[in-house]
Each structure stands twice: as structure tokens, then as C-alpha cells.
Amino acid sequence: MDIWIKQIKQYEFPVSNQVNLIVVVGNKVKIESWKGLYGLPNDDLSIENGIILDHSERWPLCIDPQNQASAFIKKQGFEVKKDLFKVLKSADDRISQEIEAGIKLGKWILVENMTEKISAEYDSILTPQMRSKGKTKIIK
To answer: Which is more confident, 116 or 129?
Structure first.
């Protein structure tokens, strides 16, 4: 049993050993479509990561040494978003312009091969400073 479960139980909170992200948040139909249509691997970690990606309101960062997440996102992006999906490499010369256009047009942008240090120019995207201009929201 996990250490944190023991700590929670000592405060007499009800705890179930059967709860996991797939059971609580997962949608069986959606998960099966991810596996069948987009090639999501059938292991719990991959399914949990798919659920996290699906529920993310911000820009998810995937550490993906086997390129499984990349392949899954590409298959899904090219089918779901078609013309509104772009794959970029972190070294692309026009990455800033492409990301800006992607935000304006509602594109999915997949940036591959990011390093541990992300350029400060992406701060306004990663931690958006939203403001309203009439009914339109603008990222500064």
C-alpha cells in the first residue's frame, strides 16, 4: 500500500484501494477509439497519459523517448483537426510565427525535440496573460 494512503487513513478519511484515473475520469468509448483509431498503446500508463492530455486546459509537455505519444497525437491531430494541425521541430526558423498563427487560428501545434530549457519568448504562451478587448480575449 502506498505511503500516502496510510497517511490519509490515519486521519480516518475513507479510502478505496480500487480507485484509479482510468476508472474515475476515463471514458471507455473514447479510450477504445484512441486505441483503435489512433494507436494508443493498451497499457495503463499510456491510457492515463491520454486522459491527462484530453483533460488538459493548458499546453501539455510530453516526455516521450519512445515516440508513442508523438505518434498518437499525430494520428489524432491529422484526423481530427486536418488542416488545423502542425508539427514543428524546436529548431525551425519560423517556430514563433507558426505558434502565433496557430493560436490565432485554433490550431493544434506539436513541437518536437524541445530541450530542458525553454526560451523566454514562450513565457507568454505557457503562462498566458489574457486580457479582454470587447468580447474577444487576447493573449499579450
So the answer is: 116
